[in-house]
């Protein structure tokens, strides 16, 4: 920490090592991703094969969708541990709706429409619940979202009685296995969401407010930023996106298991955010960085597995990458 | 039990005995303990076998593992940190213990604890020396420890060699008290002494209260951090040893989410995540409270009036955590005003 602190040299330029570090902080993640892609093109057979590309993108899409919501929460200085549980809630509700267990209906397309909308809204409402604990009751985000981390999966298990729900429903499953223009539907969804939130963080008042809340909450409040509403909004968005990811996850599997949908997702999402260069302390955020972070983690795992290295070792490497990324990108003290 | 942060409010005016203010203050300080006693009374009056020796023994046996990791977590949280790696270290500890059972009881207990200490030490070193956030460092360690556990266990559970001493460590009794419960009891007595009567305990609270000031006062902040994470890793691995001894296998996939359950126990006990204050005894009460919920749910189902699937236990635990946190919040606000 202290070394990077050294003042600017008289010419106004950073000394050489510090310049490398500044470079690492700004473009480190993107450069690492580029290096990984180049390495794979050179050394992994069939890497550019459309099937490989599609499968990598398909696997990473739900993580990215959850992780960009997490980025907003972390930008306000918070954290959302409940995302995996909310995926399970949405994943448990959707089949109940389109299998007509909850609302018998003569028109299947209404059931499908409701199954795509209601679970996401329910997850969003749970997100607002998180947000209200943080914003109104001033409960620390870790604890506030721990409540639904514990209870959320329980709710999903209770409504399904812990049973595995199998289904075949092409209309609903389009969200997970649809291929418009030959591209997986959830990858298009991912790109749209990343683009929308990257724009919102860069170009809208909302984005400025989010960063202001995370940078200095008291100052933001004094400056007239609607802190409470911003916090409600980011947790609500995180909940909505988790719900959406839950639907995608069950659509791919053609089954919903409340015990396993979204398990460990909070950790993957937080890791993607951290590797992407958003500090967990809030006040700074990069949505594109989070996309890059998730892609790096996915590609490292793919690369190791493709070269015959066991999954257990891949986890250890992933841990080292997360630490290295956070160390390289750590903020210089102002 | 009283929290060790500010000097406890002296018995100001004794004539206010039984007054409302005094009751409120009692509830505030001992609320969790009162809730635990009420829950135990409820169980004792309602269910015939609640106080049966086997029921008490099984509750203690099962919750001993949570007790150990929550104890380590309490110390980490008191310094203002957090340790997400404990659940994975439990799994790693159980695998190493199971692999070492052919060499006897001693290595099967000691080596996993040493490995846990090593992992905790690594956590502490990275957090203290490289100044990275505890949350992300221990998150990475969670992944690494889980990977190591899967690697050593070859992705499946590892059976133990039936060493009588090792099995006794998980399943035996001393004068009717389960051995794991004794271990936890000793650990908590040690924890209370460490926190209240040792220099280390004072320093832990000082670092959590104000790290910058502690550093300026010349406290060895880095060494204290190394100490609490090492302690947490050692206790988590010990919980893993108990897991292996109790169930007869080392389980590389066990312990998922235990770190968050442990944090919930600590919070229910009343230790603030901001650090600088806390109570070891209150954490034990928090562990027992959350553990008893499952037990009472089982009895209630046996009673026949209602039938709740076991899945309700996480809903009830979550709701319980919510209620406790909201109450603590309210009481804290009232104290401020």
In spatial order, strands of the major sheet of chain B run 1-4
Estimate the global geometry of chain B from the Cα principal axes.
globular
CATH C-level class of chain A = Mainly Alpha
Count the E strands of chain B: 4
Structural class of chain B: mainly alpha
Please tell me the overall pLDDT of chain A: 86
Number of helices of chain A: 13
- Which oligomeric form is depicted? heterodimer
Main β-sheet, spatial strand arrangement of chain A: 1-2
Q: What portion of the residues of chain B fall into strands of 2 or more residues?
A: under 5%
Distance between the termini of chain A: 11 Å
CATH architecture of chain A: Orthogonal Bundle
Poorly predicted tracts of residues of chain A: 1-12
How many helices of chain B? The count is 13
How many DSSP-defined strands of chain A? 2
N→C terminal distance of chain B: 25 Å
Q: What is the CATH topology classification name of chain B? A: ABC transporter involved in vitamin B12 uptake, BtuC
Determine the fraction of residues in helical runs of chain A and give it as a percent range: over 70%
Q: DSSP strand (E) fraction of chain A?
A: under 5%
Number of structural domains of chain A: 1
Architecture overview:
The complex is a heterodimer of chains A (334) and B (337). Chain A has helices at residues 16-43, 50-75, 83-98, 108-135, 141-160, 170-177, 185-203, 205-215, 217-222, 227-253, 265-275, 287-306, 311-328; strands at residues 165-166, 255-256. Chain A contains 13 helices and 2 strands; from the N terminus they run αααααβαααααβααα. Residues 1-12 of chain A have low confidence and may be disordered. The termini of chain A are close together. Chain A has one domain: Orthogonal Bundle (ABC transporter involved in vitamin B12 uptake, BtuC). In chain A, strands 1-2 form a two-stranded antiparallel sheet. By secondary structure, chain A is mainly alpha-helical. Chain A is 71% helix and 1% strand. The longest helix of chain A is centred in the N-terminal third of the chain and has 28 residues, at 16-43. Chain B is mainly alpha-helical and 337 residues long. Chain B has one domain: Orthogonal Bundle (ABC transporter involved in vitamin B12 uptake, BtuC), CATH 1.10.3470. Chain B is 73% helix and 2% strand. Chain B has helices at residues 20-46, 53-78, 86-100, 105-129, 134-153, 164-171, 179-197, 199-209, 211-216, 221-247, 258-269, 280-303, 312-336; strands at residues 158-159, 173-174, 177-178, 249-250. Chain B has a two-stranded antiparallel sheet with strand order 1-4. In chain B, a hairpin with a 2-residue loop joins strand 2 (173-174) and strand 3. The longest helix of chain B is centred in the N-terminal third of the chain and has 27 residues, at 20-46. Residues 6-17 of chain B have low confidence and may be disordered. The chains are: A mainly alpha (334), B mainly alpha (337). At the A-B interface, helix 5, helix 11 and helix 13 of A face helix 5, helix 11 and helix 13 of B.
